[in-house]
Write a structure and sequence with these properties.
Length: 373
């Protein structure tokens, strides 16, 4: 893991991003913003899933005015997504938006941008310079000499210069493509040229499974290089799915902890129990456990330092080839043989358990570890 790219700290509502702050997860409401009751219901589900920032589309004044009602009913910062009509940004700011997303491809007139900047400064809210490969300013879009990634970078830098000319520097930047390699290159290049917080993501990723994989590859590469301050996994699916996959990506890189990690084998001809069923049951029951308070600690296990209660490793292995070895690295582990398994805790064998009772036994031991004090 490379050292994190140093960026400016920006405040969005009551949340700080950039600088030394944790990388946070963002998503977007997927129903019309004017239908504020449905938006609120969707955002509350996102909050429960672990989303830290949410964006809403603002297509007209009714959408913009609905922001006030939404803001009063949610806990996380709200971003207004503005396209074409600069006056909707003005209305959204006055309605209580915590950040404004502007697209340089369709809001670019200097006087209009100046009006938005002045009000953002008055209300102390940042602007996201949000570029998509499908809506790049014409000056760069039709420049055949530039690679797709460089078109985005040059367009972003041009817009950043416009904002800086107005003495405005509370800026967040995103450069989203549907192509993985173009996305990686664009963010790598912009990270070399500016120190504003970067919001990572791809756009138009295709069907859900493809979107998950493309996002994991692109975001994983960038995050491993220390690039990125907020992330969104854009999927043609329910927004909670976006948050869940984002959590998996951050957890896999050691950049966040959202519950104990399940380690399981892929199964093979040696496996004599239904590993897929056992792991699915374990995941389902763990997901149903309410989140623990931030900072909660549990006792040292497997020779490691105390971890937060949302961390830890639970291993489910189908045979004795890798089972004992995984047990050494996990807080709890089961290595199965014929219909029963050996349960390990702190690398030490505890007892034999049947495959039917394996999940309940794991959760029983896990609850002992995480007992509130």
């Amino acid at each position: 893991m490379n050292k994190r790219h140093k960026t400016k700290e920006i405040k969005i509502g009551n949340l700080k991003i950039g600088g030394n702050n944790p990388i946070v997860i963002q998503s977007m409401a997927k129903v019309p913003t004017k239908d504020y009751r449905r938006v609120i219901a969707q955002i509350r589900k996102l909050e429960k899933e672990g989303c830290s920032i949410v964006r809403v589309a603002v297509k007209d004044e009714e959408d913009a005015h609905a922001i006030l009602k939404i803001k009063n009913a949610i806990r996380i910062p709200l971003v207004a997504d503005i396209h074409f009509n600069w006056k909707l940004a003005i209305c959204a700011i006055k309605s209580g938006a915590d950040k404004i997303r502007l697209n340089p491809g369709n809001i670019y007139k200097k006087q209009e941008v100046k009006e938005i900047v002045n009000l953002c400064r008055d209300y102390s809210i940042p602007i996201r310079v949000g570029l998509n490969s499908g809506s790049i300013p014409k000056t760069f879009r039709y420049n055949a000499r530039l690679r797709p990634a460089l078109k985005l970078v040059k367009a972003a830098l041009d817009y950043i210069k416009l904002l800086e000319d107005f003495n405005f520097t509370d800026i967040v930047v995103s450069l989203k493509c549907s192509n993985v390699l173009d996305t990686i290159e664009a963010y790598q290049k912009i990270a070399q040229r500016c120190s504003y917080p970067l919001h990572l993501g791809l756009t138009a990723t295709g069907f859900t499974e493809a979107g998950k994989i493309k996002s994991a590859v692109a975001l994983g590469v960038l995050l491993s290089q220390g690039i990125g301050d907020t992330i969104r996994v854009s999927l043609t699916d329910e927004p909670q799915q976006e948050v869940m996959i984002a959590k998996y990506i951050l957890s896999s890189l050691g950049l966040g902890s959202f519950g104990p990690e399940i380690i399981s084998c892929p199964a093979c001809g040696r496996t004599e129990v239904d590993i897929e069923k056992i792991v699915s049951e374990l995941h389902h029951k763990l997901s149903a456990i309410p989140a623990w308070p931030a900072g909660r600690r549990y006792p040292c296990l497997a020779g490691r330092q105390a971890l937060s209660a949302s961390q830890g490793k639970l291993a489910v292995m189908g045979c004795v080839v890798n089972g004992p070895g995984e047990a050494e690295d996990a807080d709890l582990a089961i290595a199965f043989g014929k219909k029963e398994g050996l349960l390990y805790k702190n690398s030490k064998f505890i007892k034999k358990v049947s495959s039917a009772q394996a999940v309940d036994e794991l959760l029983k031991e896990w609850s002992k570890i995480c007992t509130r004090t």
